[in-house]
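Supplementary Methods. Inverse-folding protocol.

Structures were first reduced to a discrete structure-token string of length 752. This string, shown here, constituted the complete conditioning input.
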């Protein structure tokens, strides 16, 4: 469906949606905006759920009604500047009220309209908002109908939801179609009036073109593998993935040991599966920024020359976020709201994003997070290291992922070496997955064949190490990786190594993504050339980072973290040691302590109490021990501790959005302006955003951003400039080429 001609300039128009300058010929007629949004929302709905005409009709109706209240005289006075902007204009309540006043009782449309400014409300607040709009709807509808005759079309018959969860996911998807259509039309209006060229349409996924590139890239990598056994296993995993891709859509597992080629095999599966089922995009989700950063480079290399135009890295950094309730209008080009409309909608063919961004977008009630939901529909979703979820969120997450498969038409791959027990056969997983299908060929045998390390566990009588002693242990190796639980610990061990005169490299999230990538390249080159290479890192290096050390030290942690750390040891199986295996040493720390995250502490406690103190050494290369670990871990807490499933059933959208938090402490993205290696590039991007905000500039800027916790912002008082340009916070603290931004000694865990 083509949009009607946009922004035809009229000599006389009485009702406006948006203004620009003093010349009313340059203002957007309200009727034009309503019809544009309605038609675009219907297109989004049709793309998300092809064949569901009732849903497409509901999206069209939501678009027509979403700004019905702007026909109110008070709004038109405000938009013309003759009424104070802070005064109530109730423009969202009128359309919401009209939707439920109708014979069909469209509660889904009403919730979506109420949410398009400020977020979808809870059920308790819904009635009050609708009541506030009843009189407005009755008063303005005759005027609106005269100006916009399209409003005369009857609302479609309301869909009958089978359950509260069905109503919840339908409303979220409808809300996404409406918000994205509204923001795109509003942004296009302001861009046109400022003389900016229109944004090009996003590219489409073309698996037939991309698959040969990926297959060729994998073959080139295989020829470079110096271990025939490892190369053979990777070939078997790839073949199994391509065979499984022809199967039906749904939820699948891909249980492959570290180093078994699951990243590239999962990409090949996604392309073949998208071709078989006409799916629209590939969404790769990982817990650590370091995985996103490195795998984005691998994906670009594998997909070929056109990959730069196909791939979006969305780090949740350097992006304008929701600002709560909006003013009555974004009239006169309010810059902060214009910036917010540039929040990501994931309209690219290949999206790489974080666990936090993906899951919290599924559960959020806020416009900027939810606008991407319609683009998640009909995607292949690869959940790399899927086990990294707090147990208290597992049950509602599995429910939502099941709906992503059934209602949104997605296929989901749970991809990890440490597969969690998320099936419904688990005694505490009533909301777990049913009919899980394994992609990998015979995972237990893969683990046996890919055993490349020997692990040493601490004895009960063994003293915990100080950071000085940990540094001394590292100094006895020419090449060694030591992974600790907190940024403070990484900093302390690094300082101890330097004080000893030992070479040392530091990695943590105090370093911006571009800096980490540069350091990872230096580490890889040093390992390849045989130079001294002692790396102290938080767990950001544990997964998806293609490094190969002969020795690894790991501070006591949950079993899945220890397995991932071991995956950085003898990764290619090339050591010439007597048994051909690398050495992994797990140690208790005297100075470190555990992070605050309850689930992280519980995981480490299961290793200590249920294995080591029971005189059992966990077999990190045996799926049975991993399965037992998860069986023991999950009963330590409620798998829906925040009652998210119950609140979804009860239409409490705001409560759900507030409750679903993978990270307890909220963070604020801070752009680094003082790193000498990128000062000019960052400055140019900031100037570009001040002159013309664009999603492209925000995307590029996230490579020079870190996340800061609230207490860290307090420590940085006077050094952070907030919201300049709109939606961006910049920091002028000194930035060190070795350790990154000095923002105090943080003790928080480096996950997600």
């Amino acid at each position: 469906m083509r949009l009607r001609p946009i922004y035809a300039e009229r000599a006389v128009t009485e009702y406006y949606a948006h203004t620009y300058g003093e010349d009313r010929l340059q203002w957007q007629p309200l009727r034009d905006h309503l019809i544009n949004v309605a038609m675009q929302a219907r297109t989004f709905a049709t793309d998300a759920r092809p064949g569901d005409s009732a849903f497409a009709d509901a999206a069209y109706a939501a678009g027509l009604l979403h700004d019905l209240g702007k026909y109110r005289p008070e709004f038109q006075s405000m938009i013309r500047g003759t009424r104070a902007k802070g005064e109530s204009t109730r423009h969202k309540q009128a359309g919401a009220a009209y939707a439920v006043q109708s014979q069909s009782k469209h509660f889904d449309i009403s919730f979506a309209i109420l949410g398009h400014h400020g977020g979808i409300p809870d059920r308790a607040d819904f009635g009050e908002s609708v009541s506030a709009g009843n009189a407005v709807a009755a008063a303005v509808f005759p005027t609106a109908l005269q100006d916009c005759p399209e409003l005369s079309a009857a609302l479609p018959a309301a869909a009958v939801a089978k359950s509260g969860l069905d109503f919840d996911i339908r409303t979220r998807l409808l809300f996404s179609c409406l918000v994205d259509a509204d923001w795109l039309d509003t942004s296009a209006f302001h861009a046109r009036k400022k003389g900016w060229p229109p944004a090009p349409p996003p590219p489409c996924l073309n698996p037939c073109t991309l698959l040969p590139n990926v297959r060729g890239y994998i073959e080139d990598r295989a020829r470079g593998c110096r271990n025939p056994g490892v190369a053979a296993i990777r070939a078997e995993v790839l073949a199994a993935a391509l065979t499984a891709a022809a199967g039906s859509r749904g939820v699948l597992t891909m249980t492959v040991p570290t180093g078994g080629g699951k990243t590239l095999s999962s990409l090949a599966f996604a392309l073949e599966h998208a071709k078989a089922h006409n799916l629209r995009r590939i969404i790769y989700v990982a817990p650590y920024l370091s995985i996103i950063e490195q795998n984005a480079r691998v994906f670009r290399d594998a997909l070929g020359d056109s990959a730069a135009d196909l791939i979006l890295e969305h780090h949740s950094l350097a992006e304008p976020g929701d600002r709560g309730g909006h003013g009555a209008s974004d009239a006169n080009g309010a810059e902060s709201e214009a910036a917010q409309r540039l929040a990501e909608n994931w309209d690219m063919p290949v999206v790489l994003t974080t666990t936090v961004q993906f899951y919290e977008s599924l559960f959020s009630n806020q416009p900027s997070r939810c606008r991407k939901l319609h683009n998640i529909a009909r995607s292949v979703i690869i959940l790399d290291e899927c086990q990294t979820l707090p147990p208290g969120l597992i049950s509602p997450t599995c429910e939502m992922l099941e709906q992503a498969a059934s209602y949104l038409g997605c296929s989901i791959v749970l991809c990890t070496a440490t597969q969690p027990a998320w099936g419904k056969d688990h005694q505490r997983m009533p909301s777990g997955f049913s009919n899980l299908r394994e992609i990998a060929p015979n995972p237990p045998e893969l683990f046996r064949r890919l055993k490349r390390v020997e692990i040493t566990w601490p004895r009960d009588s063994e003293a915990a190490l100080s950071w000085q002693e940990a540094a001394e242990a590292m100094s006895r190796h020419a090449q060694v990786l030591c992974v600790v639980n907190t940024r403070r610990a990484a900093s302390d061990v690094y300082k101890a190594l330097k004080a000893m005169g030992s070479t040392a490299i530091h990695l943590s999230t105090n370093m911006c993504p571009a800096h980490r990538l540069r350091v990872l390249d230096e580490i890889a080159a040093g390992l390849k050339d045989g130079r001294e290479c002692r790396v102290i890192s938080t767990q950001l290096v544990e997964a998806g980072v293609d490094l190969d050390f002969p020795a690894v030290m790991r501070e006591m942690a949950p079993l899945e973290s220890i397995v991932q750390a071991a995956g950085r040891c003898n990764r290619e199986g090339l050591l010439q040691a007597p048994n051909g295996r690398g050495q992994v040493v797990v140690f208790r720390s005297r100075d470190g302590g555990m992070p605050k995250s309850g689930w992280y502490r519980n995981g480490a406690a299961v290793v200590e109490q249920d294995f080591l103190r029971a005189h059992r050494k966990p077999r990190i290369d045996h799926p049975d021990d991993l399965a037992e670990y998860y069986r023991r871990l999950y009963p330590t807490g409620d798998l829906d501790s925040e009652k998210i499933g119950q609140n979804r059933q009860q239409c409490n959208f705001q409560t759900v959005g507030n409750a679903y938090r993978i990270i307890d402490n909220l963070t604020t993205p801070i752009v680094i302006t003082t790193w000498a290696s990128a000062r000019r590039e960052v400055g140019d991007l900031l100037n570009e955003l001040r002159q013309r905000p664009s999603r492209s500039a925000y995307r590029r800027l996230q490579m020079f951003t870190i996340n800061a916790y609230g207490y860290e912002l307090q420590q940085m008082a006077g050094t952070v400039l907030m919201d300049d340009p709109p939606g961006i916070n910049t920091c002028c603290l000194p930035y060190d080429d070795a350790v990154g931004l000095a923002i105090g000694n943080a003790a928080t865990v480096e996950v997600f």
